[in-house]
Specification:
By secondary structure, the protein is of the alpha+beta class. Helices cover 28% and strands 32% of the residues.
Length: 98
């Protein structure tokens, strides 16, 4: 098992899928260091999935805006799903999805 703060994560392996569940740094800050680490550890065509399970009802527009803004600032494009669990599927804009 490997445990690290995301901003300090370092591994030579690349991943085609990165999953973050209830990782609040993506909407409580710009997440600059964290999103750069994620970009660096993704394979070309890889996908980042960020999911939040919040209170029943519509997700907070503040969370949606903060996450999509942070992702876009780091070269990601994303789709947002708001049914039940708020989820973002993102990929680096200059990499083809495979």
């Amino acid at each position: 098992m490997y445990q690290s703060a995301l901003a300090d994560f370092a591994m030579s392996e690349r991943f085609d899928k990165v999953l973050a569940i209830n990782v609040y740094v993506f909407w409580t800050s710009a997440a600059d260091a964290e999103l750069e680490v994620v970009r660096e550890c993704m394979t070309p065509g890889g996908a980042l999935f960020i999911c939040y399970e919040g209170p029943a009802g519509e997700p907070s527009p503040r969370v949606v805006t903060a996450v999509t803004t942070a992702l876009a600032a780091h070269g990601f494009v994303c789709d947002v799903e708001t049914g039940g669990i708020l989820s973002f599927r993102a990929r680096v804009a200059d990499r083809a999805v495979g």
